[in-house]
Every structure is written in structure tokens, then in C-alpha cells.
């Protein structure tokens, strides 16, 4: 018997060894297959990055380089120095003021609307309807938006005529559609829904345990709101504010359709330089674009940093 067992053990290694080899052989190609799958997946993003590179990165680089070139092809900083002139300085200030006003109002009202939607106890269709409308309105802009406001609050708009006939009140004289506040009203049409869409995911991350824990320690709702909830939500909310700022700062079509060249804004000035068959001053136009891109990059860079912090809070909660 021992001889038989010994004989079987002696034979087993010849069977066991081949059985272990396929497992080892199957594990070895796993890494190459994973790398191949990752490479194939990465190829799916190639059209996007190719599009961004051709239509965004390359034009920005070329435009920035042109801002340093003078009329005779020489290196110069005169184009950037010209941005300090009153007309261009005012254009940047007007664009910044317009962006700040619409971003602050849009962020506050949009946050309140997002909070209301989160806590809505009404029918589900109302939540879906408001959310869908906000998603559509946040992407609306340009001439259709300008036409809607001109038709509503313009000199012969529906609301203007109605107020004039009923109360003798001239709305167009109080808020001309081509004025700063007229453009602010138009921009709020897409700024508020955009902030609503951005704030809903952050508000959904608020835990009931935070409120219960604070109240169990004797804190009131207001104290919990200002010492716990808002500090945690601050990165997401400030990031949304910065996105609204960049969105308003780069707006062109709606403001131009409402005010024409009378609106002294950076995008409209750039459009003035680049429109038509003849470029008035390529270097100055490039300097304007470079200044606008720099402000946009700062806003988006700060938003990216804040989103990383908000992600850490979400991952840790």
C-alpha cells in the first residue's frame, strides 16, 4: 500500500504541475488586456481632445502670440498697454460689473430655488417640470433670448404697452432694454437656472445627521446652517458662482442683440475688431482676447480647486 501511495504521489506531480500552469499563464496576459482595453477607451476621447486642441488651444496660443506683435511684425507690449486706455478699461470694468451682478443675484436666487426643489413635497411632476425647464433655460441665450426680452419689455413690448395703457407707467424709460440693467435682466434668465442645476447635487449631499447631531448638542437651526452646512457647501457654491461669472463675462450675442455697439463690453469690442472684411488692429484685438481668456482661466482654475475640495468632503461623508 505504501508503495502504491508512493507511486501515486510520484505520479501526481506530473498531473498537478500542468494544472497550475494555466492559472499562471491566464494571470499573466490580464495586464496587457487591461492596458489594451484602457487604450481603446482612451481612443474614444480622441475626437473630443482633437476638437478642443484645434478649435480652442491652438487659437488661444496663436492669439496670445499675436498680441505681442506690432503692425510691422516686431515684438511689442504696446497692445497690452493700450488696454489701459479709458475705452478698453471701461469695457473690462463693465464686463466685470455685469458678471458680478448677474452672478451674485443668480447664485442667491438659484440656490434658493434649488433648495426649494430639494425640499419640495408636492407632486413629482412639478419637480420634473421645474428641473427640466431650468436645464433648458440655463442653455438659452443669444438672439432668441434678446428677442424675447425686447418683445416683452422693449419700447413696444407686451408688458410695456400693458403698463402704459393701464397705469400710464413707461417701463422702457425706467429700464431701457439696451441699458446695463436691461442686459442684467436678460442674463438672469439663464444665470438663475444654471445655478439651480449646479446647486441641486450639492444640496442633495447635505446629511440629516448633521442637523440631528447639532440639535442634540443644543445648537439652533441657524447656527447649524452657518457653522456646519454652509461651510461644507461653500466650495460647491463658490465654484458655481465662478462658473456663472465666466458664463456672463464671455456672453456676446444676447448683449449685442439688445444693445448693439452701445454696450461697452469686452466681447462686443472684440466682435467689433474682428467683424467685417478688414481687421482694424489685430494686435489690439488679440490683446483684448488674451485679457478675457486670462480672466476666464483664473475663474475656472479657482473653480477646479474648489471642486476638488468639495469632492473630498463628499468622499469623506
From TrEMBL:
Region (Disordered): 1-24
Chain intervals with Basic and acidic residues compositional bias: 1-13
InterPro entries: MetI-like, MetI-like_sf
Biological process terms in GO annotation: transmembrane transport
Subcellular localization(s) per the UniProt record: Cell membrane
Pfam families reported for this sequence: BPD_transp_1
Limits of the ABC transmembrane type-1 domain: 92-301
Transmembrane region(s): 48-69, 98-118, 145-163, 184-204, 224-246, 253-274, 280-302
SUPFAM superfamilies: MetI-like (SSF161098)
Predominant localisation class: membrane
Protein name: Spermidine/putrescine transport system permease protein
Native species: Leucobacter exalbidus
Lineage: Bacteria, Bacillati, Actinomycetota, Actinomycetes, Micrococcales
Amino acid at each position: 500500500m505504501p508503495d502504491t501511495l508512493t507511486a501515486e504521489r510520484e505520479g501526481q506531480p506530473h498531473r498537478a504541475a500542468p494544472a497550475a500552469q494555466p492559472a499562471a499563464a491566464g494571470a499573466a496576459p490580464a495586464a496587457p488586456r487591461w492596458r489594451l482595453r484602457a487604450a481603446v477607451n482612451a481612443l474614444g476621447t480622441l475626437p473630443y481632445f482633437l476638437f478642443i486642441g484645434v478649435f480652442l488651444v491652438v487659437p488661444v496660443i496663436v492669439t496670445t502670440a499675436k498680441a505681442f506683435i506690432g503692425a510691422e511684425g516686431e515684438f511689442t507690449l504696446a497692445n497690452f498697454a493700450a488696454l489701459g486706455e479709458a475705452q478698453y478699461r471701461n469695457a473690462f470694468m463693465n464686463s466685470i460689473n455685469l458678471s458680478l451682478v448677474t452672478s451674485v443675484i443668480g447664485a442667491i436666487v438659484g440656490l434658493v430655488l434649488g433648495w426649494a426643489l430639494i425640499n419640495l413635497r408636492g407632486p413629482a411632476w412639478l419637480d420634473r417640470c421645474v428641473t427640466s425647464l431650468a436645464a433648458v433655460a440655463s442653455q438659452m441665450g443669444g438672439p432668441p433670448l434678446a428677442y424675447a426680452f425686447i418683445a416683452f419689455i422693449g419700447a413696444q413690448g407686451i408688458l410695456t404697452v400693458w403698463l402704459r395703457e393701464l397705469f400710464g407707467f413707461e417701463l422702457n424709460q425706467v429700464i431701457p432694454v439696451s441699458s446695463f440693467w436691461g442686459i442684467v435682466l436678460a442674463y438672469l434668465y439663464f444665470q438663475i437656472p444654471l445655478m439651480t442645476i449646479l446647486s441641486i447635487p450639492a444640496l442633495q449631499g447635505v446629511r440629516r445627521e448633521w442637523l440631528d447631531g447639532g440639535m442634540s448638542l443644543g445648537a439652533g437651526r441657524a447656527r447649524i446652517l452657518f457653522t456646519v452646512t454652509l461651510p461644507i457647501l461653500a466650495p460647491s457654491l463658490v465654484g458655481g458662482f465662478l462658473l456663472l461669472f465666466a458664463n456672463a463675462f464671455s456672453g456676446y450675442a444676447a448683449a449685442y442683440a439688445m444693445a448693439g455697439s452701445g454696450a461697452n463690453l469686452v466681447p462686443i469690442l472684440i466682435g467689433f475688431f474682428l467683424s467685417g472684411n478688414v481687421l482694424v488692429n489685430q494686435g489690439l484685438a488679440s490683446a483684448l482676447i488674451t485679457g478675457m481668456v486670462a480672466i476666464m482661466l483664473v475663474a475656472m482654475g479657482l473653480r477646479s480647486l474648489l471642486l476638488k475640495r468639495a469632492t473630498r468632503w463628499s468622499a469623506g461623508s
